[in-house]
Amino acid sequence: MALREIEYFYSTHSAFAYIGSSRLREISARHGCRLIHRPFALSPVVEAAGGASFAGRTQRHVDYFFGREIERWAAYRGVPIIDHRPTYHDKPLALSSGMMIRAQELDLDMDALAHALLEAHWRDDIDLTDEKALTHAATNVGIDAAPLLEKAMSTSVQDTFAKNTQEAIERGFFGSPTYILNGDMFYGQDHLELLEQALNTPFPAPGFRNPPVNAL
User: Is the N end or the C end of the chain the one with fewer CB atoms within 10 Å?
Assistant: First the structure.
């Protein structure tokens, strides 16, 4: 019997991907699913969906959605997390994403590695552009980072990163994390319970229709 697959779109610095990571792995293991990791660049996806850039949001919005919500969900999931926005959070994601993509090409334990990088960023405040920090995170889950970092910035790997980002835009995703099961989108780690429900008993096919936004 073929494993069921969950497409897992996320950015390697995503707080909510980290908060949901252990729960997602539990669900996948319980239901015999395979996670297909699709790291992408977050900002272009959010802005293409009509969301404001981080700098374009009000302080109240940032404090609630990227402060209080992170605190509460981390406590609810039992996830250790730092008490501030990571120091190096705005640095590029190309290296860490390339590392993940190369790991998938080599059929390594992507689930463990993704969790390790997310955890290192949100618990230990690492810089995701620092090869030594990435190596340490990988070593902690028994993965040799050298062959991953060697190819992480190669043209072929970065092309995959760009394609993941473009696909997320074309499929109308709102941000990270986004899970896809049988073509159905579950956006945000707060929908993991719905994702598991769909694995137990599929929801009815989409049927609700809205008028075009410009007609409202």
Answer: N
